[in-house]
């Protein structure tokens, strides 16, 4: 079990929060736009008492992490406990052994793909398969690393949620856990449909090949054609095909879960900023005492610190997500220039490409919303009247306008709305390069008429 401290995110100025210090502030109770301390509770009604077993991010993430652990990811212990203090990471538990066994299987498939590239040459299809298994292998290792830090991160997050509940109202009638379940259900159903379409397209090709050969074992033809990197080295048997297909399914889930996780964690962090912003919008144009602004600035600083701490742990996952999605979008566009035989394959290609685009866009917009919400206090601070302007407002405004609060990809880029256009431009640029360098390969693909030919 890893020990951690939740004092990384400090409360800042404690004395300035108390109304007893008003005699030291320049505050005129005769102003008509002044909100006196006794009115603050009515101006911003707080939420109900915080219950970590139902209201925390730990509770909202519980079913999602349990789902991930069914596929060998996120091996954290204590997920079913009522609060984050029970979370722990241990190398000696069945979840770790399950996750490591899947990593070993993925590693074997990655090595066999490398051998195939070396012995039979490189093309876009072989390279795409290799990249898929390599990135899922790296992703699985990254989530084990995140699981090691997850208990400390959740303790810090839960501490902030507990403090915010006493001051901020709930911004949505739908709980965070309910929204998480809805998003997870939609993404997983679409991912299941995408993988089912891929299996159906592969089965269609295997059926055509088996018909040409007069082979009654369609399943054997399917497994051999889908995993040539294995069955060119080993003899085929049904149990081997099932094991490899299982690893393939787990890898596919891992690929989809990366984007799902980033969407959910971005939603949770954005909600925290929205709570602060909703309180600020309610006092827009009013002259608040200095202690009130000190408290608001301290809360904003807590969120900024939490964002940086979160980014420290998941920036590698962010970079991997954008790299994988960008690569596969370029490959899908490249494959679109090749003739696609059969209506089943055309439907699969269109569905897969559309799902990939939608998932990438959703990740980008949800992650960018953190940066958007962090900038919203600026107009409110600009509108503070001269009678209510003080040092705390000035410090708050300086931090909002100069601090870049956002998730990053290993500090290489920050996720903002402008990044979406940058990624789109990058896709167009690299697609033109790929088309030029793969013109010969495209001619070879057009000449393929044998359904049994493995590419």
Q: What Rg do the Cα atoms give?
A: 27 Å
Give the N-to-C terminal Cα separation: 48 Å
Helical content, roughly?
55-70%
Mean pLDDT: 83
Shape: elongated
Please indicate the count of domains.
Answer: 1
Category from helices, strands and their pairing: mainly alpha
Low-pLDDT runs: 7-34, 36-42
> What summary fits the major beta sheet?
none
Number of helices, where a helix is a run of at least 4 consecutive DSSP H or I residues:
15
- The arrangement of helices and strands along the chain is HHHHHHHHHHHHHHH
What's the number of extended β-strand segments?
Answer: 0
**Beta-strand percentage?**
under 5%
Plain-language structure description:
Residues 1-25 are annotated as: Disordered. The chain has 455 residues and is mainly α. The protein has one domain (52-439). The protein is 69% helix and 0% strand. It contains 15 helices and no strands. It is elongated.
Describe the protein's topology.
Blueprint: H1 37-43, H2 52-55, H3 57-70, H4 94-120, H5 124-165, H6 176-213, H7 218-226, H8 228-231, H9 238-282, H10 290-335, H11 343-375, H12 377-382, H13 391-402, H14 417-437, H15 439-446
Membrane topology: Multi-pass membrane protein
GO molecular function, one term: taste receptor activity
Family: Belongs to the insect chemoreceptor superfamily. Gustatory receptor (GR) family. Gr5a subfamily.
């Amino acid at each position: 079990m890893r020990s951690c401290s939740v004092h990384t995110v400090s409360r800042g100025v404690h004395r300035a929060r108390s109304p007893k210090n008003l005699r030291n502030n320049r505050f005129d109770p005769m102003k008509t736009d002044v909100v006196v301390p006794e009115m603050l509770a009515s101006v911003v009604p707080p939420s109900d008492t915080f219950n970590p077993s139902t209201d925390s991010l730990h509770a909202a993430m519980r079913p999602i992490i349990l789902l991930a652990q069914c596929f060998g990811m996120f091996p954290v212990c204590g997920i079913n406990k009522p609060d984050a203090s029970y979370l722990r990471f241990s190398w000696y538990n069945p979840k770790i052994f399950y996750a490591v066994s899947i990593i070993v299987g993925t590693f074997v498939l990655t090595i066999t793909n490398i051998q195939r590239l070396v012995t039979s040459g490189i093309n876009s299809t072989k390279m795409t398969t290799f990249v898929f298994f390599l990135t899922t292998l790296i992703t699985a290792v990254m989530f084990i690393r995140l699981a090691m830090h997850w208990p400390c991160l959740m303790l810090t997050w839960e501490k902030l949620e507990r403090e915010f509940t006493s001051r901020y109202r709930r911004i949505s009638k739908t709980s965070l856990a309910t929204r998480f379940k809805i998003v997870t259900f939609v993404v997983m159903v679409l991912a299941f449909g995408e993988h089912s379409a891929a299996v159906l397209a592969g089965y269609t090709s295997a059926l055509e090949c088996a018909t040409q050969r007069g082979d009654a074992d369609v399943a054997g033809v399917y497994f051999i054609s889908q995993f040539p990197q294995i069955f060119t080295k080993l003899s085929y048997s049904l149990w081997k095909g099932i094991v490899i297909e299982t690893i393939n399914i787990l890898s596919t889930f891992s690929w989809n879960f990366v984007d799902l996780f980033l969407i959910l964690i971005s939603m949770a962090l954005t909600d925290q900023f929205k709570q602060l912003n909703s309180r600020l919008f309610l006092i827009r144009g009013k002259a608040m005492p200095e202690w009130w602004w000190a408290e608001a600035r301290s809360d904003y600083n807590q969120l900024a610190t939490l964002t940086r701490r979160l980014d420290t742990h998941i920036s590698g996952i962010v970079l991997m997500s954008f790299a994988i999605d960008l690569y596969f979008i370029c490959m899908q566009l490249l494959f679109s220039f090749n003739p696609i035989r059969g209506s089943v394959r055309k439907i699969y290609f269109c569905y897969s490409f559309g799902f990939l685009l939608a998932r990438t866009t959703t990740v980008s917009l949800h992650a960018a919303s953190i940066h958007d919400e962090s900038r919203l206090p600026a107009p409110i601070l600009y509108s503070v009247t001269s009678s209510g302007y003080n040092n705390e407002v000035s410090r708050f405004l300086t931090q909002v306008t100069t601090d870049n609060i956002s998730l990053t990809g290993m500090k290489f880029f920050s996720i903002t709305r402008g990044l979406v256009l940058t990624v789109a431009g990058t896709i167009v640029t690299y697609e033109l390069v790929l088309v030029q360098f793969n013109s010969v390969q495209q001619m070879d693909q057009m000449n393929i008429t044998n359904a049994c030919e493995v590419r």
